[in-house]
């Protein structure tokens, strides 16, 4: 369903939609903070399944950080973890501008398969989108459900009080997009700022051209 009035709610995935994610940059930052090798961080955080447990909501934040610190032999508090997450994430100003434009026309939210601490990190990474995102960053670890399961989309719709046909979901993974569509949401797979802008325009949002487009247009006539 495209064209016509824009949806009342736009749900963005976080990693590789609102922010590009570098696994290696995050690992390197945490390794440097804790004085260990990147291989050890990878083994403790990812290969052990610790990150998956946290993202699924099987353990709480205190347990997650304690096990991470024990495994690395150095304390890892929320501040250190968030710093490493920020080091691994980069927000494209063009994407941020698109999201801000959408926030002026509809409700916006984030629906991500990440642990609860990402919602705190978003206050820094996506600072220009607050207060529009206040209470609107939904993390799988806090909800104990994950995309592409139908339950997480139903929860998001109840949270925002919007029926599925009036919500647009944007993700970089086809399986998650298919899951949203199965529940009745409009959904698009996007990979970069250009694709995001195209998808938003198809669904009725009025978006300003970016500076590069304006500069190109100025030479035509």
UniProtKB/TrEMBL annotation:
CDD domains linked: HAD_sEH-N_like
SUPFAM superfamilies for the chain: HAD-like
Gene3D superfamilies: HAD superfamily/HAD-like, Putative phosphatase, domain 2
Superkingdom of origin: Bacteria
Pfam family, one: Hydrolase
PANTHER family: ALPHA-D-GLUCOSE 1-PHOSPHATE PHOSPHATASE, FLAVIN MONONUCLEOTIDE HYDROLASE 1, CHLOROPLATIC
NCBIfam families for this protein: HAD-SF-IA-v3 (TIGR01509)
Protein name per its UniProtKB record: HAD family phosphatase
């Amino acid at each position: 369903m495209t064209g016509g009035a824009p949806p009342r709610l736009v749900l963005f995935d976080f990693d590789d939609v609102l922010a590009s994610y570098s696994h290696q940059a995050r690992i390197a930052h945490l390794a440097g903070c804790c004085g260990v090798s990147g291989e050890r961080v990878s083994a403790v955080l990812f290969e052990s399944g610790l990150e998956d447990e946290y993202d699924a909501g099987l353990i709480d934040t205190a347990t997650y950080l304690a096990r991470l610190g024990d495994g690395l032999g150095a304390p890892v508090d929320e501040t250190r973890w968030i710093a490493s997450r920020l080091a691994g994430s980069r927000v494209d100003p063009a994407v941020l501008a698109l999201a801000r434009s959408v926030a002026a026309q509809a409700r916006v939210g984030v629906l991500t398969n990440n642990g609860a601490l990402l919602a705190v990190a978003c206050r820094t990474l996506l600072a220009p989108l607050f207060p529009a995102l206040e209470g609107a960053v939904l993390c799988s670890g806090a909800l104990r459900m994950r995309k592409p399961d139908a339950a997480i989309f139903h929860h998001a719709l109840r949270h925002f009080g919007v029926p599925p046909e009036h919500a647009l979901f944007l993700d970089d993974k086809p399986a998650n997009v298919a899951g949203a569509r199965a529940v009745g949401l409009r959904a698009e797979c996007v990979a970069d700022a250009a694709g995001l802008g195209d998808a938003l325009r198809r669904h009725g949002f009025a978006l300003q051209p970016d500076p590069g487009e304006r500069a190109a247009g100025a030479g035509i006539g």
